[in-house]
Protein backbone atom coordinates (compact mmCIF):
# COMPACT_ATOMS: atom_id res chain seq x y z
CA UNK A 1 0.00 0.00 0.00
CA UNK A 2 1.47 3.37 -0.98
CA UNK A 3 1.61 6.35 1.43
CA UNK A 4 -1.32 8.15 -0.18
CA UNK A 5 -3.64 5.17 0.21
CA UNK A 6 -2.39 4.57 3.74
CA UNK A 7 -3.35 8.16 4.72
CA UNK A 8 -6.85 7.57 3.36
CA UNK A 9 -7.34 4.37 5.38
CA UNK A 10 -5.59 5.62 8.54
CA UNK A 11 -8.76 7.09 10.14
CA UNK A 12 -10.60 3.84 9.45
CA UNK A 13 -7.83 1.81 11.09
CA UNK A 14 -7.92 4.08 14.17
CA UNK A 15 -11.72 3.78 14.37
CA UNK A 16 -11.61 -0.03 14.15
CA UNK A 17 -8.88 -0.19 16.79
CA UNK A 18 -10.88 2.08 19.14
CA UNK A 19 -14.08 0.06 18.60
CA UNK A 20 -12.31 -3.24 19.29
CA UNK A 21 -10.74 -1.72 22.42
CA UNK A 22 -14.11 -0.58 23.76
CA UNK A 23 -15.65 -3.99 22.95
CA UNK A 24 -12.82 -5.91 24.65
CA UNK A 25 -12.94 -3.56 27.63
CA UNK A 26 -16.67 -4.07 28.07
CA UNK A 27 -16.32 -7.87 27.73
CA UNK A 28 -13.54 -7.86 30.29
CA UNK A 29 -15.56 -5.78 32.77
CA UNK A 30 -18.45 -8.28 32.62
CA UNK A 31 -16.15 -11.03 33.77
CA UNK A 32 -15.06 -9.08 36.88
CA UNK A 33 -16.63 -8.33 40.24
CA UNK A 34 -18.67 -5.26 39.26
CA UNK A 35 -21.31 -7.26 37.41
CA UNK A 36 -21.96 -9.31 40.52
CA UNK A 37 -23.55 -6.24 42.14
CA UNK A 38 -26.70 -6.82 40.13
CA UNK A 39 -29.11 -9.70 40.67
CA UNK A 40 -31.59 -11.03 38.11
CA UNK A 41 -34.75 -9.93 39.91
CA UNK A 42 -34.71 -6.56 41.58
CA UNK A 43 -36.82 -3.40 41.65
CA UNK A 44 -36.24 -0.11 39.86
CA UNK A 45 -35.47 1.45 43.23
CA UNK A 46 -32.74 -1.15 43.79
CA UNK A 47 -31.47 -0.49 40.29
CA UNK A 48 -31.02 3.24 40.94
CA UNK A 49 -29.32 2.62 44.29
CA UNK A 50 -27.03 -0.01 42.77
CA UNK A 51 -25.95 2.32 39.98
CA UNK A 52 -25.25 5.11 42.49
CA UNK A 53 -23.22 2.72 44.65
CA UNK A 54 -21.35 1.51 41.58
CA UNK A 55 -20.38 5.10 40.74
CA UNK A 56 -19.31 5.83 44.32
CA UNK A 57 -17.23 2.68 44.60
CA UNK A 58 -15.65 2.34 41.17
CA UNK A 59 -15.79 5.63 39.23
CA UNK A 60 -12.33 6.76 38.14
CA UNK A 61 -12.47 10.09 40.04
CA UNK A 62 -13.58 10.80 43.59
CA UNK A 63 -17.21 11.93 43.80
CA UNK A 64 -19.49 12.49 46.81
CA UNK A 65 -22.86 10.86 47.39
CA UNK A 66 -24.61 14.24 47.64
CA UNK A 67 -23.27 15.27 44.23
CA UNK A 68 -24.34 12.00 42.62
CA UNK A 69 -27.79 12.20 44.22
CA UNK A 70 -28.39 15.82 43.17
CA UNK A 71 -27.13 15.15 39.64
CA UNK A 72 -29.46 12.15 39.40
CA UNK A 73 -32.51 14.12 40.55
CA UNK A 74 -31.65 17.01 38.21
CA UNK A 75 -31.29 14.67 35.22
CA UNK A 76 -34.48 12.80 36.07
CA UNK A 77 -36.63 15.92 36.24
CA UNK A 78 -35.03 17.70 33.28
CA UNK A 79 -35.94 14.76 31.04
CA UNK A 80 -39.64 15.07 31.85
CA UNK A 81 -40.26 18.55 30.42
CA UNK A 82 -38.41 21.90 30.26
CA UNK A 83 -39.96 23.25 33.48
CA UNK A 84 -39.89 20.36 35.95
CA UNK A 85 -36.76 21.08 37.95
CA UNK A 86 -34.70 20.42 41.05
CA UNK A 87 -33.74 23.47 43.13
CA UNK A 88 -30.69 23.04 45.41
CA UNK A 89 -30.97 24.40 48.92
CA UNK A 90 -28.48 27.21 48.26
CA UNK A 91 -30.63 28.51 45.37
CA UNK A 92 -34.05 28.11 46.97
CA UNK A 93 -33.59 30.94 49.51
CA UNK A 94 -33.03 33.58 46.80
CA UNK A 95 -35.93 32.24 44.72
CA UNK A 96 -38.30 32.37 47.68
CA UNK A 97 -37.23 35.92 48.56
CA UNK A 98 -37.91 37.16 45.03
CA UNK A 99 -41.37 35.56 44.99
CA UNK A 100 -42.35 36.41 48.58
CA UNK A 101 -41.64 40.06 47.84
CA UNK A 102 -39.35 40.78 50.79
CA UNK A 103 -36.34 39.67 52.82
CA UNK A 104 -34.68 40.80 56.04
CA UNK A 105 -31.72 43.14 55.77
CA UNK A 106 -30.59 46.75 56.16
CA UNK A 107 -32.27 48.25 53.07
CA UNK A 108 -29.57 49.30 50.62
CA UNK A 109 -28.38 48.51 47.13
CA UNK A 110 -24.62 48.50 46.74
CA UNK A 111 -21.85 47.87 44.26
CA UNK A 112 -18.27 46.74 44.82
CA UNK A 113 -16.07 49.31 43.04
CA UNK A 114 -12.27 49.43 43.28
CA UNK A 115 -12.31 47.42 46.52
CA UNK A 116 -14.95 49.74 47.99
CA UNK A 117 -18.55 48.85 48.85
CA UNK A 118 -20.44 51.84 47.45
CA UNK A 119 -24.05 52.51 48.47
CA UNK A 120 -26.06 53.03 45.27
CA UNK A 121 -29.56 53.37 46.72
CA UNK A 122 -31.10 53.56 50.17
CA UNK A 123 -34.61 52.10 50.47
CA UNK A 124 -37.14 54.74 51.55
CA UNK A 125 -38.00 54.48 55.27
CA UNK A 126 -35.80 51.38 55.57
CA UNK A 127 -33.34 50.62 58.38
CA UNK A 128 -30.36 52.27 56.64
CA UNK A 129 -32.29 55.46 55.85
CA UNK A 130 -33.38 55.62 59.50
CA UNK A 131 -29.73 55.12 60.45
CA UNK A 132 -28.61 58.05 58.29
CA UNK A 133 -26.78 56.10 55.58
CA UNK A 134 -26.78 57.92 52.22
CA UNK A 135 -26.21 56.97 48.59
CA UNK A 136 -22.57 57.42 47.58
CA UNK A 137 -21.17 56.56 51.00
CA UNK A 138 -18.74 53.65 51.46
CA UNK A 139 -19.31 50.69 53.76
CA UNK A 140 -15.96 49.83 55.34
CA UNK A 141 -16.77 47.18 57.95
CA UNK A 142 -19.71 45.05 59.10
CA UNK A 143 -19.48 43.81 62.69
CA UNK A 144 -15.74 44.42 62.56
CA UNK A 145 -15.19 42.43 59.34
CA UNK A 146 -13.29 44.37 56.67
CA UNK A 147 -15.35 44.79 53.48
CA UNK A 148 -12.66 46.51 51.44
CA UNK A 149 -10.40 43.63 50.47
CA UNK A 150 -11.88 41.82 47.51
CA UNK A 151 -14.93 40.39 49.26
CA UNK A 152 -17.59 39.07 46.87
CA UNK A 153 -21.12 40.47 46.58
CA UNK A 154 -22.58 37.25 48.00
CA UNK A 155 -20.27 37.34 51.03
CA UNK A 156 -21.20 40.97 51.74
CA UNK A 157 -24.90 40.15 51.39
CA UNK A 158 -24.56 37.36 53.95
CA UNK A 159 -23.08 39.84 56.44
CA UNK A 160 -25.79 42.46 55.87
CA UNK A 161 -28.82 40.16 55.79
CA UNK A 162 -30.10 38.34 58.85
CA UNK A 163 -33.14 37.62 61.04
CA UNK A 164 -35.58 40.42 61.69
CA UNK A 165 -34.72 42.52 64.74
CA UNK A 166 -31.05 41.55 64.86
CA UNK A 167 -28.45 44.30 64.57
CA UNK A 168 -25.27 44.87 62.60
CA UNK A 169 -22.64 47.55 63.22
CA UNK A 170 -21.61 49.25 59.98
CA UNK A 171 -18.53 51.45 59.60
CA UNK A 172 -19.46 54.12 57.05
CA UNK A 173 -17.11 56.55 55.26
CA UNK A 174 -18.41 59.80 53.75
CA UNK A 175 -16.43 61.17 50.79
CA UNK A 176 -17.59 64.77 51.35
CA UNK A 177 -16.67 65.33 54.99
CA UNK A 178 -13.94 62.62 54.90
CA UNK A 179 -15.23 61.16 58.17
CA UNK A 180 -15.69 57.56 59.30
CA UNK A 181 -18.59 56.77 61.61
CA UNK A 182 -20.14 53.60 63.06
CA UNK A 183 -23.89 53.07 62.73
CA UNK A 184 -25.85 50.27 64.39
CA UNK A 185 -28.65 49.11 62.09
CA UNK A 186 -31.55 46.92 63.15
CA UNK A 187 -32.52 44.52 60.35
CA UNK A 188 -36.11 44.59 59.14
CA UNK A 189 -38.29 43.41 56.25
CA UNK A 190 -37.02 44.93 52.99
CA UNK A 191 -39.48 45.05 50.09
CA UNK A 192 -38.41 43.30 46.90
CA UNK A 193 -40.57 45.28 44.49
CA UNK A 194 -42.22 43.51 41.56
CA UNK A 195 -43.84 46.70 40.24
CA UNK A 196 -40.84 48.50 38.79
CA UNK A 197 -42.57 51.66 37.59
CA UNK A 198 -45.93 53.42 37.75
CA UNK A 199 -46.62 56.87 36.36
CA UNK A 200 -49.15 58.98 34.49
CA UNK A 201 -48.77 59.79 30.79
CA UNK A 202 -50.42 63.02 29.65
CA UNK A 203 -52.57 62.97 32.81
CA UNK A 204 -54.99 60.39 31.36
CA UNK A 205 -53.01 57.16 30.95
CA UNK A 206 -51.66 55.07 33.83
CA UNK A 207 -48.52 53.05 33.05
CA UNK A 208 -47.63 50.04 35.24
CA UNK A 209 -44.51 47.91 34.71
CA UNK A 210 -44.80 44.42 36.29
CA UNK A 211 -41.49 42.57 36.53
CA UNK A 212 -42.93 39.31 37.93
CA UNK A 213 -46.10 38.04 39.63
CA UNK A 214 -44.92 37.71 43.24
CA UNK A 215 -46.90 37.28 46.46
CA UNK A 216 -46.95 41.05 47.02
CA UNK A 217 -47.62 42.12 43.41
CA UNK A 218 -51.37 42.60 43.73
CA UNK A 219 -50.97 44.84 46.77
CA UNK A 220 -48.23 46.79 44.94
CA UNK A 221 -50.49 47.05 41.86
CA UNK A 222 -53.45 48.35 43.86
CA UNK A 223 -51.31 50.82 45.82
CA UNK A 224 -49.69 52.14 42.63
CA UNK A 225 -53.06 52.85 40.99
CA UNK A 226 -54.44 54.50 44.12
CA UNK A 227 -51.33 56.68 44.36
CA UNK A 228 -51.82 57.73 40.73
CA UNK A 229 -55.45 58.59 41.54
CA UNK A 230 -58.16 56.41 40.01
CA UNK A 231 -60.00 59.52 38.80
CA UNK A 232 -56.89 60.84 37.05
CA UNK A 233 -56.83 58.32 34.21
CA UNK A 234 -59.20 56.51 31.87
CA UNK A 235 -56.70 54.09 30.31
CA UNK A 236 -54.24 51.61 31.83
CA UNK A 237 -51.10 50.28 30.14
CA UNK A 238 -49.82 47.13 31.85
CA UNK A 239 -46.29 46.35 30.66
CA UNK A 240 -45.38 42.66 31.03
CA UNK A 241 -42.57 42.61 28.47
CA UNK A 242 -39.84 40.22 29.72
CA UNK A 243 -42.04 39.16 32.65
CA UNK A 244 -41.26 35.47 33.15
CA UNK A 245 -44.33 34.75 35.28
CA UNK A 246 -44.79 33.86 38.93
CA UNK A 247 -47.77 32.92 41.06
CA UNK A 248 -51.00 31.94 39.27
CA UNK A 249 -53.05 33.33 42.16
CA UNK A 250 -51.49 36.78 41.70
CA UNK A 251 -52.22 36.85 37.96
CA UNK A 252 -55.83 35.92 38.74
CA UNK A 253 -56.13 38.72 41.32
CA UNK A 254 -54.97 41.37 38.86
CA UNK A 255 -57.12 39.98 36.03
CA UNK A 256 -60.10 40.06 38.41
CA UNK A 257 -59.80 43.86 38.67
CA UNK A 258 -60.68 44.17 34.97
CA UNK A 259 -63.32 41.48 34.36
CA UNK A 260 -67.02 41.34 35.29
CA UNK A 261 -68.29 38.84 37.84
CA UNK A 262 -68.50 35.29 36.50
CA UNK A 263 -66.05 35.73 33.61
CA UNK A 264 -63.74 32.74 33.21
CA UNK A 265 -60.09 33.68 33.79
CA UNK A 266 -58.22 30.38 33.38
CA UNK A 267 -58.62 26.65 33.87
CA UNK A 268 -56.12 23.84 34.42
CA UNK A 269 -56.21 20.14 33.53
CA UNK A 270 -53.79 17.34 34.44
CA UNK A 271 -53.59 13.55 34.24
CA UNK A 272 -54.19 13.12 37.96
CA UNK A 273 -55.72 16.52 38.65
CA UNK A 274 -59.36 17.43 38.25
CA UNK A 275 -60.12 20.43 36.09
CA UNK A 276 -59.96 23.59 38.15
CA UNK A 277 -61.49 26.83 36.86
CA UNK A 278 -61.02 30.37 38.16
CA UNK A 279 -63.68 33.02 37.67
CA UNK A 280 -63.84 36.76 38.25
CA UNK A 281 -65.57 37.97 41.40
CA UNK A 282 -67.67 41.10 41.72
CA UNK A 283 -64.49 43.08 42.43
CA UNK A 284 -63.87 44.69 38.99
CA UNK A 285 -62.28 47.76 40.58
CA UNK A 286 -61.08 49.01 37.18
CA UNK A 287 -64.42 48.75 35.42
CA UNK A 288 -64.66 51.19 32.54
CA UNK A 289 -60.90 51.75 32.29
CA UNK A 290 -59.48 50.96 28.84
CA UNK A 291 -56.70 48.39 28.97
CA UNK A 292 -53.60 47.81 26.84
CA UNK A 293 -51.14 45.01 27.65
CA UNK A 294 -47.58 45.08 26.31
CA UNK A 295 -46.02 41.68 25.58
CA UNK A 296 -42.99 40.21 23.85
CA UNK A 297 -41.43 36.80 23.26
CA UNK A 298 -40.09 36.71 26.86
CA UNK A 299 -43.49 37.25 28.50
CA UNK A 300 -44.28 33.85 29.98
CA UNK A 301 -46.47 31.74 32.27
CA UNK A 302 -48.55 33.95 34.60
CA UNK A 303 -48.05 36.84 32.16
CA UNK A 304 -49.69 34.74 29.45
CA UNK A 305 -52.59 33.79 31.72
CA UNK A 306 -53.28 37.48 32.35
CA UNK A 307 -52.98 38.45 28.67
CA UNK A 308 -54.97 35.42 27.47
CA UNK A 309 -57.85 36.02 29.88
CA UNK A 310 -58.11 39.68 28.88
CA UNK A 311 -57.96 38.84 25.16
CA UNK A 312 -60.48 35.98 25.29
CA UNK A 313 -62.94 38.13 27.24
CA UNK A 314 -62.48 41.02 24.75
CA UNK A 315 -61.57 43.28 27.67
CA UNK A 316 -58.38 44.87 26.32
CA UNK A 317 -55.85 45.12 23.51
CA UNK A 318 -52.63 43.09 23.45
CA UNK A 319 -49.76 45.02 21.82
CA UNK A 320 -46.36 43.58 20.92
CA UNK A 321 -45.25 40.12 19.86
CA UNK A 322 -46.30 36.52 20.54
CA UNK A 323 -45.51 35.49 24.09
CA UNK A 324 -43.13 32.68 25.09
CA UNK A 325 -45.59 29.78 25.29
CA UNK A 326 -45.12 28.43 28.83
CA UNK A 327 -48.40 26.87 29.97
CA UNK A 328 -47.34 24.10 32.32
CA UNK A 329 -48.40 24.16 35.97
CA UNK A 330 -45.65 23.37 38.48
CA UNK A 331 -46.22 22.25 42.05
CA UNK A 332 -43.32 22.88 44.42
CA UNK A 333 -42.48 20.22 46.99
CA UNK A 334 -39.97 21.28 49.66
CA UNK A 335 -37.58 18.54 50.75
CA UNK A 336 -36.20 18.00 54.30
CA UNK A 337 -32.73 19.36 53.39
CA UNK A 338 -34.28 22.72 52.33
CA UNK A 339 -34.02 21.91 48.62
CA UNK A 340 -37.14 21.50 46.49
CA UNK A 341 -38.52 20.00 43.32
CA UNK A 342 -40.95 21.66 40.95
CA UNK A 343 -43.03 19.04 39.17
CA UNK A 344 -45.36 19.73 36.25
CA UNK A 345 -48.82 18.52 37.24
CA UNK A 346 -51.19 20.21 34.74
CA UNK A 347 -51.58 22.57 31.78
CA UNK A 348 -53.10 26.05 31.64
CA UNK A 349 -55.94 26.86 29.24
CA UNK A 350 -57.34 30.29 28.39
CA UNK A 351 -61.11 30.89 28.51
CA UNK A 352 -61.48 30.09 24.78
CA UNK A 353 -59.80 26.71 25.30
CA UNK A 354 -56.32 27.58 24.03
CA UNK A 355 -53.43 25.70 25.58
CA UNK A 356 -50.70 28.27 26.17
CA UNK A 357 -47.91 25.66 26.15
CA UNK A 358 -45.80 25.34 23.01
CA UNK A 359 -44.37 21.97 21.95
CA UNK A 360 -41.35 20.56 23.77
CA UNK A 361 -41.32 17.19 22.00
CA UNK A 362 -37.81 17.74 20.59
CA UNK A 363 -36.12 18.33 23.94
CA UNK A 364 -35.15 21.30 26.12
CA UNK A 365 -32.44 22.63 23.81
CA UNK A 366 -34.82 22.87 20.85
CA UNK A 367 -37.52 24.26 23.14
CA UNK A 368 -35.45 27.26 24.22
CA UNK A 369 -33.96 27.68 20.75
CA UNK A 370 -37.48 28.23 19.43
CA UNK A 371 -37.35 31.95 20.30
CA UNK A 372 -34.25 32.40 18.14
CA UNK A 373 -35.96 30.38 15.41
CA UNK A 374 -38.80 32.90 15.37
CA UNK A 375 -36.28 35.53 14.32
CA UNK A 376 -34.70 33.39 11.59
CA UNK A 377 -38.17 32.52 10.24
CA UNK A 378 -39.16 36.18 10.16
CA UNK A 379 -41.89 35.99 12.81
CA UNK A 380 -40.35 38.72 14.95
CA UNK A 381 -40.15 41.12 12.02
CA UNK A 382 -43.29 40.26 10.06
CA UNK A 383 -46.65 39.17 11.45
CA UNK A 384 -47.42 37.29 8.21
CA UNK A 385 -44.50 34.93 8.88
CA UNK A 386 -46.17 33.32 11.90
CA UNK A 387 -47.02 29.69 11.16
CA UNK A 388 -50.43 28.83 12.66
CA UNK A 389 -52.11 25.46 12.27
CA UNK A 390 -55.75 25.52 11.13
CA UNK A 391 -56.47 23.18 14.06
CA UNK A 392 -55.34 25.87 16.50
CA UNK A 393 -58.00 28.49 15.74
CA UNK A 394 -60.28 29.62 18.58
CA UNK A 395 -62.77 32.43 19.14
CA UNK A 396 -63.11 35.01 21.88
CA UNK A 397 -66.39 35.77 23.65
CA UNK A 398 -67.26 38.30 20.93
CA UNK A 399 -66.29 35.93 18.11
CA UNK A 400 -62.86 37.32 17.25
CA UNK A 401 -60.40 34.70 15.94
CA UNK A 402 -57.40 33.97 18.15
CA UNK A 403 -54.68 31.38 17.77
CA UNK A 404 -53.40 28.51 19.88
CA UNK A 405 -50.29 26.44 19.42
CA UNK A 406 -48.19 28.19 22.03
CA UNK A 407 -48.23 31.67 23.54
CA UNK A 408 -50.62 34.58 23.14
CA UNK A 409 -50.63 36.32 19.76
CA UNK A 410 -51.10 40.11 20.06
CA UNK A 411 -53.95 42.10 18.57
CA UNK A 412 -51.47 44.72 17.37
CA UNK A 413 -48.17 43.28 16.13
CA UNK A 414 -44.98 45.28 16.69
CA UNK A 415 -41.84 43.98 14.92
CA UNK A 416 -38.45 44.11 16.57
CA UNK A 417 -36.36 47.05 15.43
CA UNK A 418 -33.64 45.98 12.99
CA UNK A 419 -32.85 49.46 11.67
CA UNK A 420 -29.99 50.24 14.06
CA UNK A 421 -26.48 48.81 14.44
CA UNK A 422 -26.62 47.23 17.89
CA UNK A 423 -23.44 45.15 17.82
CA UNK A 424 -21.26 47.97 19.21
CA UNK A 425 -23.83 48.95 21.84
CA UNK A 426 -24.25 45.31 22.85
CA UNK A 427 -20.48 45.00 23.24
CA UNK A 428 -20.49 48.09 25.49
CA UNK A 429 -23.10 46.50 27.75
CA UNK A 430 -21.92 42.90 27.68
CA UNK A 431 -18.37 43.84 28.69
CA UNK A 432 -19.57 46.14 31.48
CA UNK A 433 -17.91 49.24 29.96
CA UNK A 434 -21.27 51.02 29.64
CA UNK A 435 -22.32 50.37 33.25
CA UNK A 436 -18.86 51.10 34.64
CA UNK A 437 -18.83 54.49 32.96
CA UNK A 438 -22.36 55.33 34.16
CA UNK A 439 -21.44 54.37 37.72
CA UNK A 440 -18.19 56.37 37.59
CA UNK A 441 -20.05 59.45 36.33
CA UNK A 442 -22.74 59.15 39.01
CA UNK A 443 -20.21 58.62 41.78
CA UNK A 444 -18.33 61.79 40.81
CA UNK A 445 -21.38 63.97 40.11
CA UNK A 446 -24.19 62.69 42.36
CA UNK A 447 -24.46 65.75 44.62
CA UNK A 448 -24.17 68.23 41.75
CA UNK A 449 -26.88 66.42 39.76
CA UNK A 450 -29.27 66.27 42.72
CA UNK A 451 -28.72 69.94 43.47
CA UNK A 452 -29.35 71.01 39.86
CA UNK A 453 -32.26 68.58 39.30
CA UNK A 454 -34.03 68.13 42.66
CA UNK A 455 -36.91 66.11 41.18
CA UNK A 456 -36.86 63.23 38.70
CA UNK A 457 -38.95 65.16 36.17
CA UNK A 458 -36.44 68.04 36.31
CA UNK A 459 -33.72 65.57 35.36
CA UNK A 460 -35.79 63.83 32.66
CA UNK A 461 -36.82 67.10 31.00
CA UNK A 462 -33.55 69.04 31.26
CA UNK A 463 -30.52 66.76 31.61
CA UNK A 464 -28.54 66.27 28.40
CA UNK A 465 -25.83 63.67 27.85
CA UNK A 466 -22.94 65.82 26.68
CA UNK A 467 -20.44 65.21 23.89
CA UNK A 468 -17.73 65.04 26.54
CA UNK A 469 -19.57 62.16 28.24
CA UNK A 470 -19.97 60.10 25.06
CA UNK A 471 -16.36 60.81 24.05
CA UNK A 472 -15.16 59.51 27.43
CA UNK A 473 -17.41 56.45 27.09
CA UNK A 474 -16.08 55.64 23.61
CA UNK A 475 -12.48 56.18 24.82
CA UNK A 476 -13.08 53.68 27.64
CA UNK A 477 -14.49 51.27 25.08
CA UNK A 478 -11.41 51.65 22.87
CA UNK A 479 -9.17 50.98 25.87
CA UNK A 480 -11.13 47.75 26.40
CA UNK A 481 -10.51 46.89 22.72
CA UNK A 482 -14.15 47.45 21.72
CA UNK A 483 -14.14 48.97 18.26
CA UNK A 484 -16.72 50.33 15.86
CA UNK A 485 -17.49 47.70 13.26
CA UNK A 486 -18.86 50.52 11.13
CA UNK A 487 -19.63 54.21 11.77
CA UNK A 488 -22.45 54.65 14.28
CA UNK A 489 -25.74 55.76 12.80
CA UNK A 490 -27.48 58.77 14.34
CA UNK A 491 -30.19 56.40 15.56
CA UNK A 492 -27.78 54.13 17.44
CA UNK A 493 -25.82 57.10 18.81
CA UNK A 494 -29.07 58.61 20.15
CA UNK A 495 -30.07 55.31 21.74
CA UNK A 496 -26.73 55.08 23.53
CA UNK A 497 -27.25 58.61 24.91
CA UNK A 498 -30.81 57.90 26.08
CA UNK A 499 -29.77 54.59 27.65
CA UNK A 500 -26.92 56.32 29.49
CA UNK A 501 -29.29 58.99 30.75
CA UNK A 502 -31.73 56.27 31.90
CA UNK A 503 -28.97 54.48 33.80
CA UNK A 504 -28.02 57.67 35.61
CA UNK A 505 -31.70 58.37 36.35
CA UNK A 506 -32.12 54.88 37.80
CA UNK A 507 -29.24 55.12 40.25
CA UNK A 508 -30.16 58.59 41.51
CA UNK A 509 -33.97 58.81 41.25
CA UNK A 510 -35.12 55.18 40.97
CA UNK A 511 -36.84 52.83 38.55
CA UNK A 512 -39.69 55.21 37.71
CA UNK A 513 -37.21 57.71 36.29
CA UNK A 514 -35.43 54.88 34.46
CA UNK A 515 -38.54 53.71 32.61
CA UNK A 516 -39.82 57.23 31.98
CA UNK A 517 -36.54 57.87 30.16
CA UNK A 518 -35.97 54.52 28.47
CA UNK A 519 -39.53 53.87 27.30
CA UNK A 520 -39.06 56.47 24.58
CA UNK A 521 -36.97 53.77 22.83
CA UNK A 522 -39.55 50.98 23.24
CA UNK A 523 -41.47 50.52 20.00
CA UNK A 524 -44.14 48.41 21.70
CA UNK A 525 -44.77 51.17 24.25
CA UNK A 526 -44.87 53.85 21.55
CA UNK A 527 -47.21 51.78 19.35
CA UNK A 528 -49.62 51.41 22.26
CA UNK A 529 -49.60 55.19 22.81
CA UNK A 530 -50.36 55.76 19.12
CA UNK A 531 -53.26 53.30 19.27
CA UNK A 532 -54.64 54.98 22.39
CA UNK A 533 -54.36 58.47 20.90
CA UNK A 534 -56.27 57.34 17.81
CA UNK A 535 -59.20 56.26 19.99
CA UNK A 536 -59.19 59.25 22.35
Label this structure with key terms:
536 residues; alpha+beta; Pdz3 Domain; 2-enoyl-CoA Hydratase, Chain A, domain 1; six-stranded antiparallel β-sheet; six-stranded mixed β-sheet; 40% helix; disordered N terminus
- Beta-strand percentage? 15-25%
Number of helices: 17
CATH fold annotation of the largest domain: 2-enoyl-CoA Hydratase, Chain A, domain 1
Can you name the CATH architecture of the largest domain?
Answer: Alpha-Beta Complex
Major pleated sheet: 6 strands, antiparallel
User: Any low-confidence stretches, pLDDT <50, length ≥5?
Assistant: 2-32
The CATH first-level class of the largest domain comes to Alpha Beta
State the domain count: 4
- Helical proportion? 40-55%
CA radius of gyration is 28 Å
Quaternary form: single chain
| Distance, first to last CA | 87 Å
In total, how many beta strands?
Answer: 21
Q: Please identify which CATH superfamily of the largest domain we are dealing with.
A: 2-enoyl-CoA Hydratase, Chain A, domain 1
Shape: globular
Amino acid sequence: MNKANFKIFLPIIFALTLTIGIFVGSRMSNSGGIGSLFSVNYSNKDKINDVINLILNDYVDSIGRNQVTENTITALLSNLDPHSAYIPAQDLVAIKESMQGNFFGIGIQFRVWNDSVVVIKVIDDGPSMLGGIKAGERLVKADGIDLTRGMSNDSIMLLLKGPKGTTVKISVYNLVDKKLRVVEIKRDAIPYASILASYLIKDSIAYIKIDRFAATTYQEFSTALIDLGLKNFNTVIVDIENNGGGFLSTAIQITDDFLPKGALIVYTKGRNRQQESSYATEHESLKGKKLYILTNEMSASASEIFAGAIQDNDRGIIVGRRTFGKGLVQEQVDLPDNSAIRLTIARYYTPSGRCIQKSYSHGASSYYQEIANRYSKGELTNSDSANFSSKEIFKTKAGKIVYGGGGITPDIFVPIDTSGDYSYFNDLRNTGVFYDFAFYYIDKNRNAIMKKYPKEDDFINRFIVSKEMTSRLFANAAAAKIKFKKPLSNKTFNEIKISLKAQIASDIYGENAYYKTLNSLDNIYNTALKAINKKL
